[in-house]
Amino acid sequence: MNLKYCADYNEMSQSAYESIIIDLKEHPSQLICTATGNSPTGIYERLTRHFDKDPECFKNLSIIKLDEWGGIDSKEPSSCESYIQEKLVQPLRIPRARYIAFDSNPVSPEEECRRIQSEIEHKGPIDICVLGIGQNGHIGFNEPADSLIPYSHLAKLAPESLNHQMINELGGEPSYGLTLGMADILQSKKIILCITGAHKKEVIQKFLSKKISTWLPASFLWLHSNVTCYIDSKAI
Ligand code: F6R
């Protein structure tokens, strides 16, 4: 794993953004998996600014949303869908055909997971997976447990996830999570993990210990051969 210690959030976002642009310039038909939340926002802002001067770079980019709060209206301002629409899909003008996303309130969540998995089978594997880490070590909504799930699935949200700032801003509490699974993430060709903020100090110490455990799902990233972990100085 390539660990990049960054002075601050801006440096972290800038370095990760530059690495994505290098790949996009080389292979414009990338499938990028995008987490929501605070950690990647600075990267997405930079991609949007890049679009303003070089829209060609994004003309074949496809996006897959990593996860979603289940049982809420996707139009809620704090849904993952609203976040991705506002920060990526609309500013980068990604058409429906190049956007894969869980519906936040499907009639059958199981069927929705099968639909997303079939999209990955046809359009994957993911080229670049942009991740944050939860305070409990989750990636996506792959929550700490006795065992982890490889493919898209319904997740029982851990208390730490239900404490996320996005939830606090939601009109109601989601009844479950919808998320890509561990194999979907680990089959990505390249993974970018951003760790930022003083509240991540405890989880980062566990992560950096390199002990692989289902109780720290992010620890499985140590098994992948192309992960860059950007760490801002507040998290150390
Ligand atoms: C969100 C997601 C979560 C977050 C994690 C960190 O789509 O997949 O796993 O990446 O909870 O959230 P932030 O970045 O807000 O600290």
UniProtKB/TrEMBL annotation:
UniProt KW keywords: Hydrolase, Isomerase
Annotated InterPro entries: Glc/Gal-6P_isomerase (IPR006148), Glucosamine6P_isomerase (IPR004547), Glucosamine6P_isomerase_CS (IPR018321), NagB/RpiA_transferase-like (IPR037171)
Signal peptide segment: none
A GO MF label: isomerase activity
Glucosamine/galactosamine-6-phosphate isomerase domain sequence ranges: 24-222
SUPFAM superfamilies: NagB/RpiA/CoA transferase-like
UniProt keyword tRNA processing present: no
PROSITE patterns recorded: GLC_GALNAC_ISOMERASE (PS01161)
Protein name, UniProt field: Galactosamine-6-phosphate isomerase
Organism, scientific name: Maribacter arenosus
Lineage: Bacteria, Pseudomonadati, Bacteroidota, Flavobacteriia, Flavobacteriales
